[in-house]
Every structure is written in C-alpha cells, then in structure tokens.
Amino acid sequence: MPEEKNIKNTVLKGIGVSPGVVTGRAYLFDRLDAQISFYKLDKAVQKTEEIRRFREALRASERQLKEIKSKLTETGGLEPIYIMDVHIMILKDRSFVANVVRQIREMSVNAEWALRLTIDKYRDIFEKMDDEYLRDRFNDIRDVGQMILRNLAGRRQEKIAPLGEGVIVIAADLSPADTAQMMIDKVLGFATDMGSKTSHTAIVARSIAIPAVVGLEKATRQVRTNDLIIIDGTAGLVIVNPDPELLHRYEEKRRHYQTVREEELKYAKYPAVTKDGCRVRIAGNIEFIEEIPSAVAHGAEGIGLYRTEFIYINREELPTEEDHFLNYRRVIGVEGLEWATIRTFDLGGDKFFSDPKLAKEMNPQMGLRAIRFCLKEINLFKVQLRAILRASAFGKARILFPMISGIEEIRAAKNILGEVRDDLKQQGIAVGGDIEIGVMIEVPSAAIIAAELAREVDFFSIGTNDLIQYVLAIDRINDQVTYLYEPLHPAVLRMIGRVVEIGHRAGIPVAMCGEMAGDPTYTMILLAMEIDELSMNPLAIPKVKEIIRETTLKEARRLLRRIMKMASAAEIREHVEKAMRDRFPGLLAGNGA
User: Fold this and answer.
1) What is the CATH number of the domain that holds 555?
2) Which residues contact 373 (CB under 8 A, 6 or more apart)?
3) How far is CA 519 from CA 58, 70, 418, in A?
4) Which helix (DSSP H) or strand (DSSP E) does residue 66 occupy?
5) Active site includes 200?
6) Which of 200, 256, 298, 489 does the annotation list as catalytic?
7) What is the pLDDT of residues 105-121, one digit of tens each?
8) What is the structure's pLDDT at 203?
9) Closest Cα partner for 111 from 57, 186, 32, 171?
10) Is 591 a member of any domain?
11) What is the mean pLDDT of residues 236-263?
C-alpha cells in the first residue's frame, strides 16, 4: 500500500543463505511472469503449427542458456555453470518435451497452456518428495519453463537498467539465468520471497560472495524500488527504510564483517584473559534472535544486551505476552551462552509500533522514552516483565532498565517487577530464582548518583552511545557535529572510571554495552579501567579477545595513567592510536586507528 512506503524499520525475516551485511537502494526485479494465454486448437494443422512453435522456443532457450553459461565461465564459480547444464538437459529431456507435445495433441491446447499443465504435473511429483534438496530441484523445471514461456511470447530476459550506484535486488525468486543477465557489478545483495539454503539464489549468491536472504515471503509486496535496504545475510534479516540510528549500527556491523579474518576466529573460542591473569567477560549485543548463532560462533560467553524494541516496531497490533515469551525463551538458556541480559523496551521518542497519540516532541531523544515511557504505560511494561520472568525459569536471566536518571525511577521499576513476580507466583507459574537487576548508566545524572544506584541493583551496564552524546551535548547522528563525538574525551573517560570504581566499591560488577566496548582501539583503556564485562557486536569479539590475550593488565594501566594526565581529547586520541599501532601492528587495520 502506498502509505506503507516510508514506514521506518520494517523488519523482514527469512533465511540467511550468503553471509555479510550490505546497505543500498532497492531494485524490484520483475521477471515478467506473464499471464499464460489459453485457447483451443480446432484442426490438426493448428496442432502441428503449435508443436513447431514450441520446439522453436526450446531451441531459442537453449541458445540463450549457452550464452549465459559462457558469461558465467568468464566470471568464475562452478555451481552456477552446473545449474546451466542441468537446465539445458531439461530442455533436451525427451520425457519433458514429449509431455508438452502430448498435451498439445490430446488436449488441443496452445503451447503455453500445454507447458503449464506439464510443469504442474512435475510440481505434484516433486512436492511429494521427503528430501528438501530434491524438492528444491523442481525450481530447475520451473525456471526452464519461465524461459520457454518468454520465448513463446517473443520476450527476452529483463535486465537491470543502468544505475549510477549499487542496488539490492528484490524479487519473488531469481534463477541463475536471471542473475547472469544482471549487471552483477551493480548488485550489492539479493532478497527473495521464495527459496531455501539449497535454492539457486543461495548457490549463486555464495559463489559471487553477495549477501542474500531468501524465503522472505512478502518482500516484493513490502518493498518499492529506491527504498533504503539493509541485508544481513548472516542473521537472515532485511530491514526496509532503517532510521539513522539503526543504519549507523549496521554500518558498524558491515565494517566489522569486512575486517574479520579467518585467522582471527581462532581467538573466538578462548576466554579473554590477559597474560598476567586478568579475565574480562565478553558478551554479544543483539537486536534480533536470529543473531544468536553468530554471537555463539564469534565467541560470546553470554548476551550482554538484547534490545527488545523490535518486538514492538513494525506491528499493527501490540505484541501479546506470549509473543514476548517466545522471543525471550529463544534467548535465555541457549546452549553455549551462560547468561542473557534483556533490556526492557526503549520505546518512545521516534520509536513507536503505531501512533501512540502523544504530543509531538521537539527533542524526542530526551523526551518520553525508555523507562519514562514504561512508567507511564505500566500495562505495556507489565506484559513485557511477565514474559521475561516466565522465560527466566529456563536459564540465567538479567533484566536491564534503560535511561535511568534518578533513584525514583529504578525503585518504581523494581516495585512493578515485584508486583508482577508475586502475581506469577500466585498463579503457580515458574520464575527463575537468580534474576539479576541492572541499570544502564547512559545519563550523566545516573553516573553522578552511581553510589546510590549501586545500593538498588545487582550490576551496572554503561551505555556509551547515549552517555557520550549527553556528556558532550551532541547528537551523534547529526552530520554537523559528529566530529565532536569523542569516546576518548577526558570527561567521558573520567566519568566511566568513576562509575567502575563506585560499582566495585559497592561489590557489583560493571559492564559496558555501547559501541566503545567493541572498538579494539579502546580495548586496553577499558581493560585498565577493570571493566568486568564488555558486550559488543559479535563480529568484533575475536579481535577484542586477541588484544586482551596478547597484553597484560600492568601494561594497560601504564597507558591509562599516561592519557589521564592529558587535557585534550585530540592529544589523547593521537597517543592511544599510536600506542595501539605500535603494540599491535596490522591488527587495527580497517578500524580507523
């Protein structure tokens, strides 16, 4: 529908079949799946003419496939070439051809309709097969049928029009013939309604190293040409018209994915322990449950931040308690992860699942959002808390409250949590017995009253993304002032150090879940501050672990002492980047350091 075109953060979930992260403009590919004509043939001469027309279409299709095969041979990759061979074999298959000819003669129908009847017959046969790979091979027959139909109609393959920038191709499905006709150097990724891990789109995408997601079901109905698209081929997600914040986070994921090398992954399975025995817990930040396998594979010990907003966003109706529970159940108690930190929703501002009928805010990022919104919409809040508590019975769970700015807010949130817990127990519903409660330190006032907050909670989690912009009074996604966004600003470093010191003095662990935690440029500084847990984009984990394992706490403290004597953010950055380059030559390539 036209009004849906500009909806932000529309999330489509499918099957990730070719890994990688890419952002670009959508190109809706129409394969010209034409209306198949139907008409009866009266005379034998008409049948003979129709059979001749069919055989000419077969020969034209074979010529085109051989041309495509020749192009694929030049670009490399054996699997697409094998597929072309299979398609040519189908064109020459006596049984296939005889079936179509028989339909023309016996049913007295035109070639297009006879071909349609034959393809339907093969579909029935293949759908009864138990093996998924064999079932998917029906796609070969369907693709060949499409090509023959186009030649019967006198059509050539549609090509992507020349475009000035790379595009993400959105289609119902793509055959190797389709992709071979495209200007591949202009294609950044594929997203299709149909397909599986063994489908042709998957095979071709992997062979040319293009991120792809298949099995999306409704992509062609929800995406329009020129929409901004993110494809996460690792998690199987397509995000339509992402907002600037999400776009920024996925740009970080894309950058990390490009720099992760095979040799770095060897560090993924090891604990982050320095040479002198200091251990740091390493966790993964996720926005979608589909990212969990990547977190485990890249060495996350737990989930340090599960952003739950996307359970709400892009829905016509509010999620039910069961919707919440099913999501959290897939995060808590996952094999290979020791704990899961569920952040209660950070809705509000410009993040709403539907029109909340609240007054327009001049500055929504510092308005009615996060814990403020939760405490206003208590029924919504309770639905989420009930689901988290129910899921906590299946594994180690931590609840993290965002944007706490004062003691009243955390006490109010804990009181509501207590009410929900009591209700569940009265209903005889199991709840985990060791749930930890934490607050995000992302507002300067929270850092200033950290000692008071520490008496109310079991852990701190420093959210540097917001903390830095609030401390330095800048909007980190505003191009005019992004140069001022500086994690190494002395005020930021002193505030982080103070929070860690207060937390440890109160006997509670301190985590960091902002982007600063996953940038290897800052790893030794954060190590020296003795932060207990670093939570980051899973793709960043191997490199951070490598740095920690190759250094000592003593060495990191020396670096921290030097920079804490400096007054200028520029001076600190220059010193840190040089120190890291000298200490880890080549390791920071691609990180801007």
Assistant:
1) 3.20.20.60
2) 345, 347, 348
3) 57, 45, 37
4) helix 44-75
5) yes
6) 200
7) 998 989 988 998 888 78
8) 65
9) 57
10) no
11) 83
The answer to whether 87 is a known catalytic residue is no
Give the torsion sign (CA, 164, 168, 170, 175): positive
Catalytic residue among 256, 374, 513, 575: 513
Which positions ≥6 away from 525 have C-beta within 8 Å? 488, 493, 556, 559, 560, 563, 576
* Domain-terminating residue out of 101, 129, 152: 152
Confidence band for 33, pLDDT divided at 50, 70 and 90: very low
The encoded tokens of residue 432 equal: 């985990």
d(CA 18, CA 263): 20
- Are 491 and 504 in a shared domain? yes
Question: Beta strands of 193-270 (E only): which ranges?
Answer: 212-214, 228-232, 237-240
For residue 456, what pLDDT band results from cuts at 50, 70 and 90?
Answer: very high
Give residue 552's identity as a one-letter amino acid code: T
Host H or E run for residue 167 = strand 167-171
Into how many domains does the chain fold?
A: 3
Whole-angstrom Cα distance, residue 574 to residue 579?
9
Which tokens in the block code for residue 566? 């400096």
Report phi then psi at 345, rounded to 5.
Answer: -60, 140
Pair 13, 73 in one domain = no
Torsion sign, CA atoms 564, 568, 569, 572: negative
DSSP state of 268: T
List the structure tokens of 196: 């599986």
Residue 207 half-sphere exposure toward CB, CA atoms < 13 A: 22
> Do the domain assignments include residue 38?
no
Q: 446: Cβ–Cβ under 8 A, 6 or more apart, which residues?
A: 404, 405, 406, 439, 440, 453
CATH number of the domain that 227 lies in? 3.50.30.10
**pTM of the full structure:** 0.69
Spatial distance between the Cα atoms of 358 and 246, rounded to a whole number of angstroms: 23
Give the model confidence (pLDDT) of 143-164 as tens digits.
888 889 888 877 544 444 444 4
Do 455 and 577 reside in the same domain of the chain? yes
- In this structure, the answer to whether residues 233 and 87 fall within a common structural domain is no
Q: Give residue 439's domain range.
A: 244-583
Radius of gyration of the chain from its Cα atoms, rounded to whole angstroms: 29
What letter does residue 565 receive in the DSSP assignment?
A: T
Cα–Cα distance between 537 and 273 in angstroms, integer? 19
Domain final residue pick, 134, 152, 170: 152
